[in-house]
Specification:
binds flavin-adenine dinucleotide; 7-stranded mixed beta sheet; 487 residues; alpha/beta; 5-stranded parallel beta sheet; Polyamine Oxidase, Chain A, domain 2; 35% helix; 20 strands; globular; FAD/NAD(P)-binding domain
């Protein structure tokens, strides 16, 4: 067996080659810093990787669920455009909810809801909205939970129809136990009145195309962004070691001193000057030697993560629907969302074929987490056959995939627990924890990339930045204009 080959004393050790870790390494390498990146998986990209599946001479590509890129940050668009050039494309967006056998646009289109639900149910939506405004505006009912937030902004009837059921599916806990931060990050600034104004044409002058209409997507999958960053890093001398992970991080409470790393070639101890990491927050604490104080470990044990199970089907059919992805909020449907990669880019599938990605949300103790592929398929097929999506005979192959630590659960106590952990970790001065898993924050690619870039600046400038300012704006994002390409 060859000996492990990592630089024994890199300036910076980056743990985790997802968007956050790679963006940090990329910015550091541009400034000539020596960096080593280690990644537990066999490929880079984290949750935003693209997987290649070969069936004989046919190649299918899939992301882990739908990955459209959207951001307010022009720097990120330029950053990606420089990497991908003509592979970076604009894609028309169609995303809908499927409820009671009918499609509803997402974000909600009030006119369509009225048409589909009929006058009586629509009047109920209006009545509930007025009631909610009275409760929360006039009688000042406090907004303590996600349920409060969506009921206050949409009224109970529409909130239940469009947001409550789906959110409970994602998180696996009642909406009354979900922290309002989840709503602030997802639907901040949006309410029934703004939706209604748009429906009756009072939403202001129709502007340029927005993120509701289109989004950017790489021709061969979102993971191309990260493969291309990795390629640039390797070319410029940064080492990236996959199938490798830390097993102990020794520290003196003020600094990380050394890190024991398991690589395919064996164990190695390295002494970095700085560590930037995106390991799931709770798992990271377990790596620390000595262990953090009891109250910090207790706070970590109060945090929960939601996992995902995925079924990926390759299909002998031209196309299933025109949607990029479809939400299935109804509780008796076992999956939450499906996506058709071909509708992101035709190059994700061989000609004349398509594929289908089905997402299940689960805790580790739930039956779905350990369910065999055949049983999952048996469970979902009656739905797709009934709706005319495809039949068993259309399926070429099925693949089962799983990811843990996908959604940090924003329950009503999460904030206090995260703060306790952060207070402790912030005392370790040469450690920066970033990204969705590292900060226990529900972020998309853009915010993870930004966190990685901020981490690089902290090192380069020798100062602290507020990582939580990333994505903290209180405005409904989807209305933002679509960025115009430079190239
Ligand atoms: C189903 C789904 C749909 C999504 N849709 C979108 C979308 O439409 N648009 C969008 O922008 N974003 C989307 N996202 C979110 C996006 O995938 C994440 O925001 C992004 O990947 C987070 O990047 P990160 O670097 O913070 O974390 P991650 O992607 O989780 O990367 C962390 C990396 O650290 C590695 N790691 C973990 N532990 C260790 C260890 N002990 N040692 C070494 N390495 C370790 C992991 O293997 C991983 O590579 C979606 C995510 C999912 C799951």
């Amino acid at each position: 067996m060859p000996t492990p080959s990592l630089n024994p004393a890199p300036e910076i050790l980056v743990i985790g080659a997802g968007p956050a870790g790679l963006a940090c390494a990329m910015e550091l390498s541009r400034k000539g810093k020596s960096c080593s990146v280690i990644e537990r998986d066999h490929q880079v990209g984290g949750l935003a990787q693209t997987i290649t599946i070969k069936e004989g001479d046919k190649t299918f590509l899939t992301d882990i669920g739908p990955h459209r890129f959207f951001s307010k940050n022009q720097y990120l668009y330029d950053f990606i455009e420089d990497l991908l050039q003509e592979e970076w494309r604009r894609v028309p967006r169609l995303t809908r909810q499927f409820v009671d056998g009918k499609y509803y646009n997402y974000p909600v289109n009030f006119g369509q809801v009225v048409r589909n639900l009929g006058l009586w149910k629509s009047a109920r939506i209006g009545f509930d909205y007025v009631l909610a405004r009275l409760r929360y505006d006039v009688f000042k009912k406090p907004m303590r939970t996600f349920e409060d937030y969506v009921v206050a902004n949409f009224g109970r009837a529409l909130a239940e129809f469009s947001m409550i059921n789906y959110s409970e599916k994602i998180w696996g806990i009642p909406c009354a136990d979900i922290h309002p931060d989840w709503a602030k990050q997802r639907i901040s600034g949006l309410n029934l009145w703004s939706v209604l104004k748009n429906a009756i044409g009072l939403g202001g002058k129709k502007g340029p195309k927005s993120l509701v209409d289109e989004f950017y997507y790489p021709q061969f999958g979102t993971g191309r962004i990260y493969e291309e960053i990795a390629k640039h890093l390797i070319e410029s001398g940064t080492e990236i070691k996959t199938n490798s992970e830390p097993v102990a991080i020794r520290h003196d409470g003020k600094r990380v001193l050394e890190v024991d790393i398991k690589t395919p070639e064996g164990m190695q101890t390295i002494k970095p000057q700085h560590v930037v990491e995106s390991v799931p927050l709770t798992a990271f604490l377990d790596l620390l030697d000595p262990k953090p104080p009891e109250e910090v470990m207790q706070a970590a044990s109060n945090l929960r993560w939601r996992n995902q199970v995925y079924l990926f089907l390759t299909i002998n059919k031209e196309q299933i629907t025109e949607d990029n992805w479809i939400y299935f909020p109804e509780k008796d449907i076992p999956f939450g969302r499906t996506s058709e990669m071909k509708n992101f880019s035709p190059d994700m599938c061989p000609e004349g074929m398509t594929s289908f990605f089905i997402e299940f949300f689960t805790f580790e103790e739930d039956e779905i987490w350990t369910m065999p592929k055949e049983k999952l398929l048996e469970m979902v097929m009656p739905y797709f056959e009934k709706w005319g999506f495809f039949t068993k005979d259309d399926i070429r192959q099925s693949y089962l995939m799983k990811r843990s630590h996908v959604y940090p659960v924003y329950d009503t106590t999460y904030k206090g627990n995260v703060e306790k952990i952060r207070e402790y970790l912030d005392g370790i001065e040469n450690l920066i924890y970033v990204g969705r898993p590292g900060r226990f924050r529900y972020t998309n690619q853009d915010h993870s990339l930004e966190m990685g870039i901020i981490a690089s600046r902290m090192i380069l400038e020798g100062r602290r930045y507020d990582m939580d300012s990333v994505g903290a704006e209180n405005e409904y994002f989807e209305k933002g204009p679509i960025y115009e390409k430079r190239i």
